[in-house]
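Before relying on records like the one below, remember that each one covers exactly one chain. Contacts with other chains, cofactors or solvent are not represented anywhere in the record.
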Amino acid sequence: MYRKIPFTESEKQVVGTRPNMLGIGNDTPIYNTPVTPRANFDAMFDERHPYWMPSIRETLSMQPNLYTNTLGRGRHQDVTDIFGIRWRFVPDAGGSIVEPGAPLMDDVNNWRKLIKIPDVTAWDWAAAAQENVIDPRFPALFSFVNGFWFERLISFMDFMPAAMALIDDEQTDAVKDLFAATTEMGIKVVDKLCEYWPALDLIEIHDDWGAQKAPFFSMDVAYELFVPYMKQITDHIHAKGRRTLLHSCGHNADRIQCYIDGGFDLWAPQAMNDIGYLYDNYGDKILLCVFPEETDIPERSEAEQRQAARDFVDRFCQPGKPSLTGMVSFRRTTPAFNDEVYEYSRKKYLAE
């Protein structure tokens, strides 16, 4: 149960630092907070009343090579995944793409002949756990990079054939069959994650649904081919006592109801989405990673940065509708801004 703990200046004492999630931006200072960042995330999820405005930068990204090199595109290196797909790392893009020219299949009806779903239960999870130890002070995040649905289908087929498969009546049943199999694979990985990392808090699933201006497919397609499988795995994650985070790049504001009905606790929209609109209309239904709409905050004076931080907190920390600062904020904010967000939101939540 949430309890009020008076604010003291000693909370602002920096007792250490650690790298940001994914190594983006400045190192994160570790304050002498009254509760751990992990407990603060719990208060956000369970009570809808954190002690201060949480930040995705406070999470620890736990990404074992066992998953990354078999199902997750590799990490800053070229890899061949468990399906035999070669991923090439592109430094300028900061990510990996499938080696072009030889898609695994061109018709989803053939998937059972061409794709073998791995037995993830046979992998050496115990060794992976020894290499990836969770610091219990911070919320730990595991990310299903490449996911189980559209992103995975693209890796098998390339983008255009995958997009066409979603609207080809002759492939619909096969798409559902494939997604059922990949979702079941994901559920088995979830079981192993929870078994070997009992302190794991957040499980993120990747599935990019949009481009710069609009989603890739219709609402009808989303509800027929994606939402049922989303709900299946998020229900399982919740049954394990964990929370679910969706990574879905693109202008997907029009699909947020799908994410809600798919059972996700949290979505991190990209900057092309109207974050104010999403927060106002859906912030009481799904938690959102938010960000300042202004892009010039680092160019302002420190006093102006701190005022922008207070305005940001007032905008996105409304009663019963908590939010957390997301990755878009990393390059739009400053240490002074983040420092003010902590103190101002701490006092704001204390006053409620």
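The first helix runs from residue 37 to 47.
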